[in-house]
Amino acid sequence: MSSPFSAHSPLPEGFVLDVYCFERVLGSPGAFGTTYAARDTKAGTRLAIKELFPRDLVMRDTDLLVHPQSAEEAGYFQDAMRMFRHEADVLSQVKHENVVRVLDYFEANGTGYMVMEYQEGYDLSRHFTMQKPGRLNENELRKLILPLLDGLEAVHAHNYLHRDIKPTNIYLTRGHRPLLLDFGAARQMVVSRSRPVTTILTAPFAPFEQYGTSIPQGPWTDIYAMGCVMFEALVSVDELPPSPNRLGEDTLVPLSHRLRGQEYSDDLLAAIDWSLQVNPQDRPQTIAAWREVLHGKASPPKPLSVPINQGSPVPAPPTAADEAKRRRTMWIVVGVGVLFFFFLFVIAAVVAAIWYFHR
Fold it and tell me: Would you tell me how many other CB atoms lie within 10 Å of the CB of residue 303?
């Protein structure tokens, strides 16, 4: 029995667009769009198709056409179409086995559709919950992460970011091939116009710079999120504070201290700690630089200790010599002030005496 139609209903099962037959919804419809399991009716191949459907901006009529909800939303929706089209164009050029393949893009029904390869498997979040004794060993983690870093580097080579790396957006195929999917670059820019950014980002995987617009984002943004994924594989993501909460007193204990002497190498722990620096400038700036530390070919540089929103270094606390110098200066100023007022008093007394004897 089908659900009653609403202005935000997904496409019905069996709906056909061009050569594609939509079979069912994969997962749950999101704020930015809906992904369907589909089939190419000519080739017979199974596919995944993402429909652009930002729920805050558009609605679906009974003819299944997508329309902006108002004239104001129409402009925003055109921007969403442009960014969605750009994402499809970039990902179609990324030919890497660890990044979801985009096979086609077309526009119909008043919106856009991204056609992707379909893979059987499950996401990394489910994989983590199945682990016993509850965390991956180093060999398992490296087999998982290193291919993903290669794929992410291929995306960055096109001047594009994922911006939503987390276990639910990393897929493990039946052959245990890790796959980056569900890119968040276009989604976050569109949905943030109608919803608070805190409801769009997933803590603790989002780094601090994603919560505002004044700090540049770059490969270091995705590296922070990937570092959070690695942290969850070894400890528990519940013990990783959201990045804005770390701006004051950072309570996060580095893994190189916490897990020292256990089954993990110093290189692995140092690389994860480096990726989780709050200040973007203190993180690896490229996948290549991060990979060097993971392989033990380099060491992380010392943090720059530059505040997030300032350009000058944090002043060092005063030493005992500094404090003594400050006190001497204070007493000199006080003494000069006392002498100044004493001379004023003497001059006033002399003037008063002269006036008194000559009146």
Answer: 13
Predicted structure pTM score:
0.81
> Taking all residues of the chain, what is their mean pLDDT, rounded to a whole number?
86
Label each residue of 45-88 as H, E or C.
CEEEEEEECCCCCEEECCCCCEEECCHHHHHHHHHHHHHHHHHH
Check: CB of residue 288 under 8 Å from CB of residue 268. Answer: no
Is pLDDT at 334 greater than 60 in this prediction? no
- Give the residue-averaged pLDDT of 340-346: 60
Domains of the chain listed by start with CATH number: 1-5+14-118 (3.30.200.20), 121-305 (1.10.510.10)
Give the orientation angle of helix 266-275 with respect to helix 138-156, to 10 degrees: 40
Residues 6+ apart with CB under 8 A from 128: 136, 167, 232, 233
Q: How far apart are the first and last CA of the chain?
A: 116
pLDDT at 344 over 70: no
Residues 173 and 119 sit within 8 Å (Cβ to Cβ): yes
Alpha carbon distance 157, 136 (integer Å): 30
